[in-house]
Amino acid sequence: MSRQPILQQYYTRGRQGIFRSNEGYDTVAKSTGLDNSFIKKTLHPFCVYDAPRLLQERGENDLSLYPEARVSFRAESGELVVGRSVFVGADFTGQRNTFFSHNYVIPAERRDDFIKEPAKIFGLRAFAQEHANTAGKELPMLAELPFQTSSVKDQRQWLRHIGIDERIFKQLLYAVMMSLSSKRKVYISLDGEVGAAAADARQLLELLYSCLPYEMRRHFGFLTYCNEPQSKKHIHVMFVEKGSIRPGAGFTEKDYVFDLAHERILQVDWQEGAHSYLDFAWEYVNEPRVLASFHDFCEEVLAGADTTFMLRLATYYELCALYLIEKGRLAVYEQNRAGIWQVLQHFLSQDGLVNKSRLLQLRDALFREETESLTNKKFPASEIISQMLKAYSAIPKERISTELVTFMMNVLLKGKTARQSGYVAEVYQHLSNDQELFGFLMRSVFGYKQVVKPLFEDYLADRLASFSKISQVLQEIEFWTETAPPALRNLFFMTATREKVISLFARERQKLQAALTIHDFFESQDGVSGFADELLDELDKSLLKQIALDSLSWDDFGKIMTLLEEKPQTFTGELDLESRQKLAHISQMAILTENREVPLPEQFFRQWDEKEMAIQQKLIVNLLGRPLEPDSFPLVALVFYRAELQGQDSFAYSDLLRFVGDNGGEEVLYSFIQWSMTQRMFFTGKYISPGYRQALKGLLLENRGRRLRDKEWKKRWFSVRHADFRKLLEEVRSETSSPLMKLFRGKSTALLSVIILLAAGAVGSFFLFMPDAVPVAPATPGGGETAEQPYPTEPVEFVPVYQLMLEPQIRPLHRTNEF
Questions:
Q1: From residue 424, how far is each of 21, 419, 446, 454, 458 by CA, in Å?
Q2: In this predicted model, what pLDDT tens digit does every residue of 280-296 receive, in sequence order?
Q3: Which of 560, 649, 637 is nearest to 598 (CA)?
Q4: Would you say residue 85 lies in a domain?
Q5: Are 299 and 310 a contacting pair, CB within 8 Å?
Q6: Is 433 helix (H, G, I), strand (E, B) or coil?
Q7: Distance of CA 557 to the CA centre of its chain
Q8: 260 assigned to some structural domain
Q9: Given Cys at both, which of 11, 267, 428, 604 links 101, Cβ 3.0 to 4.6 Å?
């Protein structure tokens, strides 16, 4: 497939152009394949020329004295534009001075041919400076462009000739490279006559251009002459006429300014010191092949990288150091070993880079250098170890190097031998950051018995000593489970981790929760059964030893039994007496939490002596809710059971009733008594047990039977369906009644006869002895007034005689006497 041709365009003042039919500035000729919109939008803004002020003022007619303006930039569509504008004197009218612009448009596919050989741009000699109308408006498309290389051999000497020393050159190169990654322009003014200055500008630009990496050249734009500073799109470096840079004008206050004609350098934030790439460029400024070799290296390493990354000046500082080391300049490595490893791993970890072969070769070379240094008892710095390990882990799926593992084992052993404990700890930390590499190393350690203690057991002991939380130890166990499973079969590991867990467990306030957390952790781990069983047995023994039973809830007893229910008999046999007793109490409490029906007290406490039974009852009291609920009544019964008492009266009944009343109130007390009437434990046959009967009676007799004086409560008490209890209520009512009520209840028939006789006598006496008993006067004939009534108009309430006897406080009837 043939390469795409190079296209041309002419621009000047003529009688007519391609885009205008009258006289004026316009494109006067172009190649057929050149798009009109591209010409107008991209090329026309650069078809301009302002003659030097000094030459204009003196009316200079020698055209050779006028500088040419070389321009080059990358178009938005990717093409490379290389052009020239020159002053050509009078136009076709002979009355106006004009200029002529000639631009070449190089296809994007061929752009690298030019940027990789700067002479094709700066040595281009095929520019026209006039176009005859008779030649037509069509320009040929070209396959190649003629050029010639620079004749300057000693660039340093030539730079000194135009007033540029090493420092200024580095500042210039720095500013040019920085302009590509920022919005700052570079304006340069050279000393000398304007024409000579423009020629020097082209030569200087070619030198600077040859120092730019290829990716920077692809985006670089320049103009070798302009009468004064201007901000033009696509242009990064502009050479301007001497005297056109005016300090304080404000236009260039944020840009890089090199007014070399007046020995002024402004806004260049360049610091003295080592600048690896700038130093390299100055060192090889007379050896373009070395510079090209470096640029080829960068091009290979950066293939696939992001453009922004490739336009960073720092990128080439870093690559320059790697390139020099690759070429055998080990002094660069010796000056900053850790920094070189950091740069290397930084590039190796770039996912976008598609060709890392030279970087990997360099990594292996540096590793060999470190191995040799270690043989000579020169320890690599901790930071070198860190960056080295990152460099080896930067390539996904790369096989772990056995040489690297061996090297790291030797570093650790030599560090321990030299008693550099801090250094060794840092190396371990760096290793553990790469779990895969660390696991490979530790599995290798277990393969050599003589290094297990110094490289594994001592390391583990140091780590465990630094832990202050159980969670840290569990994380450590999980780490080794995933990283190096053989560690779990190591006797030291088993013993040390177990002892650490137990010691930290002793400090825990919430011991049950801590134990549950540890159990849950090991249940979630695979392949730890043998190791875990022994540790958990020790943990549970410690739990029983240290836990306070009276601090547990009902739910806690169930949780503890969940932990202990599958323990073998050997576990119980290894407990001390106190722990076995606690386990028994926990089992009893668990029975209460698991069973809906509470067993009878004699069954529940049958295996306990008085002391142990008292402990159980205290636990139950602590676990009862406040206020009491009806579903806790069976538990209350357990609390006040007394095994030393005989028969059915094996309860502290009075204490039981008092406890229920104090912790539940009157309503709960009533419910408890109502519930107790349905429980066999409170009865002897069909009758309430004597002790309980006596306690109930004492309760009901309190405050002269106040519980039976209230009408509503009296109904509720008498509604309890048990004959013996009703009988008890009658007894209490009888004993708390007044003497007269007792008399009525004792001799009811005789007393009734007396009451009737007394009532009859009282009525007769009332009517017989009433002094004011007169008949009612009839109405006055014809009168308007009614006679006075001698008796009260309101009705008289009838009060039975027996009530008058029982309640003599009833008030008498009052009579009104009038005179």
A1: 85, 9, 19, 11, 11
A2: 999 999 999 999 999 99
A3: 637
A4: yes
A5: no
A6: coil
A7: 37
A8: yes
A9: 11
Q: Give me the domain span that covers residue 517.
A: 446-594
Answer whether residue 227 shows pLDDT above 80: yes
| Whether residue 768 has pLDDT greater than 60 | no
The answer to whether residue 372 sits within a structural domain is no
Q: Is residue 423 part of a domain?
A: no
Residues 177 and 321 in one domain: yes
Q: What is the mean pLDDT of residues 561-571?
A: 79
Q: How would you label 132-171 residue by residue, b for 16+ Cβ within 10 Å and e otherwise?
A: eeeeeeebeeeeebebeebeeeebeebbeebebeeebbbb
Which helix or strand (DSSP H or E) is residue 7 part of? Answer: strand 7-14
Mean pLDDT confidence for 202-225: 96
Confidence of residue 584 (pLDDT cuts 50, 70, 90): confident
Phi-psi region of 770 (alpha: psi -120 to 50; beta: other; left: phi over 0): beta
Q: How confident is the model at residue 781 (pLDDT cuts 50, 70, 90)?
A: very low
- Rounded Cα distance between 388 and 766, Å, is 129
Last residue of a domain, one of 110, 139, 168: 139
Q: How far is CA 337 from CA 357, 358, 373, 382, in A?
A: 21, 18, 12, 11
Please, how many CA atoms are within 13 Å of residue 600, restricted to the half-sphere of its CB? 9
Instruction: Indicate the pLDDT class of residue 319, thresholds 50, 70 and 90.
Output: very high
Q: Where does residue 156 fall: left (phi above 0), alpha (psi -120 to 50 degrees), or beta otherwise?
A: alpha
Distance CA 660, CA 658 (A): 5
In tens, the pLDDT along 521-534 reads: 998 888 787 888 88
- Cβ neighbours of 797 (radius 10 Å): 7
Distance of CA 666 to the CA centre of its chain: 56
> Using alpha carbons only, how large is the chain's radius of gyration in Å?
56
The pLDDT, as a whole number, for residue 690 is 92
Q: Amino acid letter at 426? A: E
Say if pTM beats, i.e. exceeds, 0.90.
Answer: no
Of 291, 317, 335, at which residue does a domain stop?
335
pLDDT, average across residues 351-370: 94
Nearest to 547 by CA among 592, 516, 521: 516
Q: Is the pLDDT of residue 803 over 80?
A: no
What is the pLDDT at residue 16? Answer: 87
